[in-house]
Design brief:
Blueprint lengths: L1 H9 L5 E4 L4 E5 L14 E4 L2 H10 L2 E4 L4 H17 L8 E10 L3 H16 L3 H4 L5 E4 L1 H13 L4 E6 L4 H17 L8
Parallel strand pairs: 3-4, 4-5, 5-6, 5-7
Antiparallel strand pairs: 1-2
Helix pairs in contact: 2-3, 3-6, 6-7
């Protein structure tokens, strides 16, 4: 929380003196200052209720990664309630989602590829990681429907992480996911 507070003060262009629990700054400034007044939006990535509350109280966006759309809905509801309690307009909190996907018409092959990726990335098997994070392995149309459940739960920006150590192969399928999402009646911001 201190870091976000420091960033926001520095982004004003003013010299900053700050004393907190973790950070102490004396007469510091940054240049160049951000082009956008107030700096870029700060999103909080979290998978917890406490994190969702913090996002609602102090951040511009919520980027959870829960394994189910219902859990996503619960986290965004928590963030919006915390924003309201902090006298903030919840409409100014961007509801985003991060998912990890491996697309293959053969679900078993997709699962093996995603398992290999998460074991390499996290050191844990997919069965463990998927209890905490939104992960999909399977055919393209199934992925689109899975993402639609999150869209229906309120996600409006979806970050697709390609769950493969052979990203070049999966990037084409990620593009296919985006194409199907756009033609399927819901929009996802592309950055």
């Amino acid at each position: 929380m201190e870091t976000a507070e420091i960033w926001r003060q520095l982004w004003t262009g003013a010299r900053v003196t700050f004393t907190g629990r973790y950070w102490t700054l004396r007469d510091i400034a940054i240049e160049p200052t951000p082009q956008q007044a107030g700096g870029p939006p700060l999103w909080l990535a979290t998978g917890t209720t406490a994190g969702a509350r913090r996002a609602g109280e102090r951040f511009d966006g919520l980027l959870p990664y829960p394994p189910t759309a219902e859990q996503y809905r619960e986290l965004t509801t928590t963030a919006y309630a915390a924003a309201s309690k902090a006298a903030r307009d919840s409409a100014h909190i961007t509801p985003a989602l991060m998912v990890t996907i491996a697309i293959n018409d053969d679900p078993e092959q997709a699962r093996k590829e995603l398992d290999h990726y998460v074991r390499t990335f996290y050191g844990y098997p997919l069965d463990a990681v998927s209890l905490l994070q939104a992960c999909y392995a399977g055919p393209l149309d199934g992925c689109v429907e899975w993402l639609r459940s999150y869209w229906n739960a309120g996600a409006r920006h979806i970050l697709l992480r390609v769950g493969s150590l052979d990203a070049a192969t999966q990037l084409g399928t990620a593009t296919g996911v985006l194409d199907n999402i756009h033609s399927g009646g819901f929009q996802v911001a592309e950055t």
